[in-house]
Structure formats: structure tokens, C-alpha cells
Amino acid sequence: MNKRQRIKRNAEFQEIFKKGKSFANRQFVVYCLAKEDDYYRVGLSVSKKVGNAVVRNRIKRYIRQTFLEIHDQVYSKMDYIIIARNPAAKLDFHETKKSLEHVLKIAKAIKKKS
């Protein structure tokens, strides 16, 4: 993910939390908010309750790689915040990708395959 696709500032996170809609499954919570820019942005949040630094960084790498692989299916003009829950620490990459795709489908953030 390049720099313009990241959400880093606290004010941006708070705006998406307040104005966006949330969708969840057991492993992830996704907040979505429409915007005018013609590219999507992603913010990641993994609490210290999930695991140590190694585990948290692995989860973030898996999420970033998932977005790299499905970037053409994800709607642009949206901001996404992904919050990892405790069960996400036990998943490997393929399970993480499947779970993240599942919650994005619930959020209607993935285009239908044609």
C-alpha cells in the first residue's frame, strides 16, 4: 500500500468511527465511510490485547497483503478501518484473507465478480 492509501491521523480515524458504518465477524470489525477521492484508504488497528508485537505486526502484514491481492475488487472512493479481534491472532494468511473478504462482503465493499 502506498502512502496515500493509508489512514494514520487520529482525527481521520475518529471521523470514520463517528460517520461510518461498522460491520463485523468473529475476527474483524470494518468501518466504512464514502468519500470523494477516487482511491480507497485503509487504517489498521490491532490492540495490545490481541498479542505481543510480533503477533500484532503479523496480523497487520496479512491485512495489507490481502488488500494488495483484492484491490481491484474493493470499491474505491471509500475509507476502511480494520480492527482485529482476539481470534485473528490464531489465523494463518489464507484464513485471514478469507475472513476479511467475508466481512467486506457483509459490508458490501467488494464488487460482485462478473
UniProtKB/TrEMBL annotation:
Consists of a catalytic RNA component (M1 or rnpB) and a protein subunit. RNaseP catalyzes the removal of the 5'-leader sequence from pre-tRNA to produce the mature 5'-terminus. It can also cleave other RNA substrates such as 4.5S RNA. The protein component plays an auxiliary but essential role in vivo by binding to the 5'-leader sequence and broadening the substrate specificity of the ribozyme. This is Ribonuclease P protein component. The keyword Cytoplasm does not apply. InterPro entries: Ribosomal_Su5_D2-typ_SF, Ribsml_uS5_D2-typ_fold_subgr, RNase_P, RNase_P_CS. Keywords: Endonuclease, Hydrolase, Nuclease, RNA-binding, tRNA processing. It catalyses: Endonucleolytic cleavage of RNA, removing 5'-extranucleotides from tRNA precursor. GO terms for cellular component: ribonuclease P complex. Belongs to the RnpA family. One of its GO terms (biological process) is tRNA 5'-leader removal. One of its GO terms (molecular function) is tRNA binding. Its EC number is 3.1.26.5. It holds the Pfam family Ribonuclease_P. Coiled coil: none annotated. It is an enzyme of class 3 (hydrolase).
